[in-house]
Amino acid sequence: MNSSDMITVFTPDGTRLYASPSIERVLGYKPEEIIGGNAFDLVHPEDAPGLREEFAERARTPGTGKPFKFRSRHADGTWRTFESIGTNFLDDPSVDGIVFNARDITDRKRTEEERDRLFEFSLDLLCVAGLDGYFRRVNPAFEETLGYSRSELLAKPFIEFVHPEDRAATISEMESLTRGVRTAYFENRYLRKDGSQVWLEWKAVPIVEEDLIYATARDVTERKRAEEALRRRDAILRAVALAAERFLKTASSWEERIEEVLERLGGAAEASRVYVFENYIGEDGELWTSQSYEWAAPGIAAQIDNPSLRAFPYRVGGFGRWVETLGWGSLIYGNTRGCFLTPSDRS
Predict the structure, then answer these.
(1) In a domain, 39, yes or no
(2) Per DSSP, what are the bridge partners of residue 313?
(3) Which residues pair with 78 in a beta bridge?
């Protein structure tokens, strides 16, 4: 018997017939002090109705009941939490009572409550999942990050929340977990309820004998964006370095290398087109420009023969502000949907 166990025999109305000596160690009462007393005198008022129902059920039903929990008052006035199970021995003349075996789980319950608080308030995404591919429990960070309610996340296989391009890798990682292999580092994309995507970095421990996986994930979307921006910047810098080499070192005429350079710049910037416009002063004394070269990504229609991009003055074309900017020796750059083109530019 566990040191936190105690055995008590009661009549159907709760009168205590016997208490094991361990009750003094567990609750601080000597057995002789409480024998003859009523079980409900020591039970927490909130738990008394449920305990009365259990007594009534055990009195009319032979055999052993289901485990239940209740709180009992210690001799020092504190409340201890117990897990108990009762067995009907009323038909056994040697016992003639209902026997309850109770175990003090106060410390375990306190640990569980602390664990639950950590689970609920963690900024990281914490979950318990089954090897069947369903979430069993998720913390609020899951709901906040993905935009789904807890019931929605538990209702269907979690692979359905994974970005389609990452599902094969995720299934492969799951197969490793089912074999008992821990996940030390794994990244995939989940789809938010609004359709956007979020990058998650996972660590997971499988408990194969329980068909469970305990996992933690961290939103690394901003880090991935920064890494992608750095990768693109480095690619563009390498393309610019190539352009300098081709134009200044190896080519007798820069036009000989222009197509290679534009292709490298377009690929590095992940652009659909790269243009080269040549500026010149027109007969009217204004700054004019004309498209001379173009690279277009596969599947993108070329505009090199578009007459509207040939020989037009900046001011008449609606790009008057560009004349001033370029005149100061400044660069014009940005996204065509943002700072690069104003509404008047686009019109």
Answers:
(1) yes
(2) 288
(3) none
Summarised one tens digit per residue, pLDDT across range 119-162 is: 888 999 999 999 999 999 999 999 999 999 999 999 999 999 99
Full domain range(s) for residue 67? 5-110
DSSP 89-152: ETT-TTT-EEEEEEEE-HHHHHHHHHHHHHHHH-SSEEEEEETTS-EEEE-HHHHHHH---HHH
Triad 103, 105, 107: Cα angle to 5°: 145
Altogether, the residues listed in the chain come to a count of 347
Please enumerate in sequence order all residues whose Cβ is within 8 A of that of 294, keeping only pairs 6 or more positions apart, or say none. Answer: 262, 273, 274, 275, 276, 302, 303, 304
pLDDT at 24: 93
Number of domain units in the chain: 4
**Which residue in 117, 34, 27 sits closest to 70, CA to CA?**
27
Tell me what the pLDDT averaged over the chain comes to. Answer: 87
Q: By percentage, how much of the chain surpasses pLDDT 70?
A: 91
Average of per-residue pLDDT across 73-88: 94
The number of CA neighbours under 13 Å toward the Cβ of 92 is: 11
Cβ atoms of 332 and 326 closer than 8 Å: yes
Alpha carbons 347 and 343: distance in angstroms, whole number: 6
In whole angstroms, give the CA distance from residue 177 to residue 48. Answer: 45
| AA identity, residue 4 | S
Q: Give Cα separations from 3 to 7, 27, 103, 330 (angstroms).
A: 11, 12, 9, 82
Q: Is residue 136 part of a domain?
A: yes
Per the domain annotation, does 289 fall within a domain? Answer: yes
Mean pLDDT check: name the lowest of 1-5, 16-20, 213-217, 288-292.
Answer: 1-5
Residue 1 contacts residue 22 (beta carbons within 8 Å): yes
Q: Is the pLDDT of residue 32 over 50?
A: yes
Mean pLDDT of the 334-342 span: 52
Site of tokens 């929605």 = 152
Please tell me whether residues 140 and 97 are part of one structural domain. no
